Amino acid sequence: MTVDEEDGAIFKGGEFGLPRKLDGMSVDSLKDYRAALEREIKHVDEALTHRKGAVAGAEALFKN
Asked: Per residue in 1-39, pLDDT tens?
């Protein structure tokens, strides 16, 4: 299995629309795509932080 195949396996054969074929994209399109991915990563990080706080609050509530 190659690195590309392993990366594809992580996404369960295209889950989330990733990995995306980049061969036909222009340099400008690639830059825009990268910027969009970076914004999405920030969004996911914020959601994870929020969820960690909610889990910690629930654990504290039920710990007693």
From this structure: 455 555 545 556 677 888 889 999 999 999 999 999 999
- The answer to whether 10 touches 18, Cβ cutoff 8 Å, is no
The secondary structure of 6-64, three-state, reads HHHHHCCCCHHHCCCCCCCCCHHHHHHHHHHHHHHHHHHHHHHHHHHHHHHHHHHHHHC
User: pTM here?
Assistant: 0.62
Distance CA 62, CA 42 (A): 31
Chain-centroid distance, C-alpha 46: 12
DSSP state of 4: H
Task: Round to whole Å and give the CA distance between 42 and 29.
Answer: 20
